[in-house]
Amino acid sequence: MGVEVVVEGLTKSFGKQNIWQNVTLTLPRGEVSVMLGPSGTGKTVFLKSIVGLVRPEQGHVLIDGVDMVNSRERDVYEARKLFGLMFQDGALFGSLSLFDNVAFPLREHTRKKESEIRRIVMERLDLVGLAGAEKKLPGEISGGMRKRVGLARALVLDPQIILCDEPDSGLDPVRTSYLSQLLIDINAEIDATMLIVTHNLDIAATVPDNMGMLFRRNLVTFGPREVLLTSEEPVVEQFLTARRAGPIGMSEEKDQATLDLEAAHGIVAGPPVERTIVPQLAPTPGLPERRAVRRRQERVKGMLHELPPAARRAIEASLRDGGGAATGPVAARVSRGAGA
Ligand SMILES: Nc1ncnc2c1ncn2[C@@H]1O[C@H](COP(=O)(O)OP(=O)(O)OP(=O)(O)O)[C@@H](O)[C@H]1O
User: Could you tell me which residues belong to the region Disordered (predicted)?
Assistant: First the structure.
C-alpha cells in the first residue's frame, strides 16, 4: 500500500534564482495526484526534491518517518527504495535489451535469484502490454513503447510511491489515452501513491484524484481535482483552456507592462469558457477497484466545508452519484461567474 508524502514549507533556489518557495502539500496515500504548471516553473525540481535527489534549502519532505531533505544520506538512500521513478525520456540503457533494462534495479538493489528476477520482469512487462518484446533493444521500439518500458522498470521494486515526469511527452493523443488508462490500472493493482507531472490536459482531466499547480515560484493550489477544475484563478483558467490571454507568457510569465500592451491590442481574457468536469477514469474491467476511492471519499467529505462553493458542488454531485471521483459518470458543468 502507498505511503503518505508530506511536504512542508519547501523552498528551493539555484544560486540567486529562486525556483519556488514555501510549498506545502500532502499526497494522500494510494491516491493519484497531478502537478501542472507552465514550462520552467520547477515541476521536475519538485519531483527530484521529493525523492532526495535535489536538496531544498528550507522545509521538509516526510516519508514514513524520514525527512528526505534533512536526514543522513544513508537514511535517504534507504527511503528511496520506496520509490519508482519514471523520467521524461524513459532513461533506458540503449545497449541493454528491454528485459535487462527492466531487470536493472532488481540486480542492482536486491539479491534475488535470476529465476525470481525473470518472473518479476515478465510480470511487469505484461502489465504495461510489452510481453513478447523483452529481447528488443530500446532503439528498435517506438517512443510510446519506451515510455512503457520506463514505467515497467519503475514498478519492479514494488514501489509505494511512483513519480512520473511528463509520461506523455512525445506521445500521440491515442497513446496518451492508453497511458492514462495504464496509470489508473497500475494504481488499482498496487495502490501506490502517485504523483504525475504533465502538461497534458486530458491526463489532468481524467487521471488524478488531486491536482496542483506551480506558478510564479508558488504553489497556486493543491487539493481534490474538483478544486482546480473549477478554479477561477486566472492562471489556472488560462492553463486549462490553453489560451494566450492571461498571466502565462511565452517565456515563463508576463509582466504588467506586457499585459497592458496586450489589453491595448485587444488580447484580453474574453468571455469565460464553459468548462466541464469529465468523469475520472475507472480501472479496466476485471481489475480490482482502486482502494484509494473509498479512502478519498471519506477524506473529501471531511473537508467539504473548507472548499470553494463550485468545488463543493462538483464533489457533492459525484458523491451523490455513489462512486466519488473515480466512478461517477456525471459530467458536471462548471458554472462560471462573469469576468473570468
Ligand atoms: N541543477 C540545476 N542547476 C541550476 N538550475 C537548475 C537545475 N535544475 C533545474 N534548474 C532550473 O530550474 C528551473 C525549473 O526547471 P524544471 O526542469 O524543474 O522546470 P519544469 O517546470 O519541469 O519545466 P518543463 O515543464 O519545461 O519540463 C529552470 O529554470 C531550470 O533551468
Answer: 319-340
